[in-house]
Specification:
By secondary structure, the protein is mostly helical. The chain has helices spanning 3-31, 33-61, 64-91, 99-113, 117-145, 149-170, 179-201, 212-237.
């Protein structure tokens, strides 16, 4: 088992599933939990099938060296996107994500739509499926890049179980989960993995092998902290 992959997949999946949970809870509150859970079940089933089918196909068709180059580029794009948003949020240039506010907006939208049970099921399905697609991409890329599909799938499954368990127990949005911090950490980790695998595909021999990933994580954290500090000063001056 690859610990780095498990942690990264767990955090990334948890963030996306928290946002999906908000939609499911809103649907359940307004339209009832039966259609909401049906939509969730079919979405999770579809996502699991995507991981199994695409994952097996990718490994059989694409050589691992070529795959790592593609994966490195994809993870860099994903990671830098998450990291950019996190830096802007923590510097005050962009408002922090508020799950309670997102829940209230979804409740209001559902109350105004006056749909039936089928629409409720479709809303839950779409919410879980769309949020989960990013999890699928991360699981596929990280699993293939590190040749550690079981680790990536395990991390995502643990994230799903934790979020669903808390949602069932509380029946409320997980507003107290440090989602903004988690997104920051995920952005750093994905960027670090992307740098490592992109470098490997171009023939870079990292001095500490996989241990270099930890150094890259520390490096990107320090750079991000400096950027946040600089942007905070600009916001304060403005």
């Amino acid at each position: 088992m690859n610990v780095y992959v498990i942690v990264a997949a767990f955090l990334a999946a948890s963030v996306e599933f928290v946002e999906a949970l908000t939609i499911v809870l809103a649907v359940g509150t307004v339209r009832g939990f039966r259609p909401a859970m049906r939509g969730t079940f079919w979405a999770v089933l579809a996502l699991a099938a995507l991981i199994l089918i695409l994952g097996e196909g990718v490994l059989r068709i694409v050589p691992i060296d070529v795959l790592r180059g593609i994966i490195g580029a994809l993870l860099l794009l994903f990671g830098l996107k998450w990291l950019r948003k996190a830096v802007l949020r923590f510097s005050g240039k962009k408002s922090l994500h508020d799950e309670q506010q997102a829940y209230a907006k979804e409740i209001q939208r559902l109350q105004q739509s006056r749909g039936d049970a089928f629409e409720a099921q479709a809303t839950a399905f779409n919410g879980v499926f769309l949020e989960g697609l990013e999890v699928v991409v991360i699981v596929l890329t990280m699993g293939a890049g590190a040749n550690a599909y079981p680790s990536a799938i395990l991390g995502a499954l643990v994230g799903l179980v934790v979020v669903v368990s808390l949602g069932v127990a509380l029946r409320a949005p997980l507003a107290k989960v440090p989602e903004n911090v988690m997104k920051f950490v995920v952005g750093v980790m994905l960027t670090s993995f992307g740098t490592f695998w992109a470098g490997e595909s171009m023939g870079v021999h990292w001095p500490l092998a996989e241990g270099t990933i930890l150094l890259l994580i520390i490096g990107y954290l320090l750079i991000s902290a400096v950027l946040v500090s600089m942007l905070k000063k600009k916001v304060a001056t403005a």
